[in-house]
Every structure is written in structure tokens, then in C-alpha cells.
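Box 3.1 A note on notation
Throughout this textbook, protein chains are presented in two layers. The first layer is the amino acid sequence; the second is a C-alpha cell string describing backbone geometry. Keep the layers aligned when reading.
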Amino acid sequence: MNKVKKTVCRNKKARHEYFIEEVYHAGMALIGAEVKSLREGRANLVDSYAKIKKGEVFLYKMHISPYPFARLMELDPVRTRKLLLSKREIKRLIGKTEQKGYSLIPLEVYFSGAYAKVDIALAKGKRKADKRQAIKERDMKRELDQARKKREY
């Protein structure tokens, strides 16, 4: 059974704002109307984050637009959603996030087969100087690639 990964949304700022240490793949506990809205790509990860409470991981401030054809109930688009991880992974994350400067940041929401999943990164915040250095390195790499292309022709 071949599972195809279909990306719904990405947190583009995450790699610019944080050093990514480890990435975990987690399932999400969703309601039917939210799944239908996700399949249409109506989600946003800007300003969202994850926290561990009472041995469970929750995703905060992820916006899923309401599905227009849902009849039963009107859901809060930015409600807190439970993430599904193994106990071993949660224990490891508890130990890591208690260290100073570490946080859990969602990177990407996608469908793996029929299941909605999210990539959660254990991340450490960058300082202004780190961001400037990353921009310099990216620009230098771009210039080198352009020089190589010119030399090939």
C-alpha cells in the first residue's frame, strides 16, 4: 500500500525564526468538517505552536476555516487540537522542552493516505545575528550557483 503525501499548508517562517533540532510526525484529532476543510487546503499555521499538558500534546492557534457545507455545528476555527504521539515520544519531548529556549513549532500539515498529520519540530529560537548570518549564507550560495551556471554555457 503506497501512501502519497499531500501537503495542505506549511509554516514558512519557522525555518527562518528557529533552529530545527528534531522533527516528529504526529496525527491530529479532528472533527469531520475540519477534515473536509483541510482537504480543500483551508488551513493556516502562522503563529501556531504546540505545548505539552498533563502528558498530552496540544496544537494551539492553528486556523482551519469552517467548512461551508457543514450542517451540525459551527466550530471555532482556532480551537485547541490534540496531537497523537507515542508515549515514548511525548516523554522525550517533555524532557527537551523543559530546557531553556526550546519550543514545539508545527512545520507542515499534510495527508498521509487518509490521515491528517502534522510535522512538529523541536526548535530553538534564533537571534537577530543568526538570522543575518543565514541570509548571508543563502545569498552567497545563490551567487555561487549563478556563477556555475554561467560557466557551463
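The radius of gyration is 18 Å. Helices lie at 14-17, 32-39, 87-97, 128-152.
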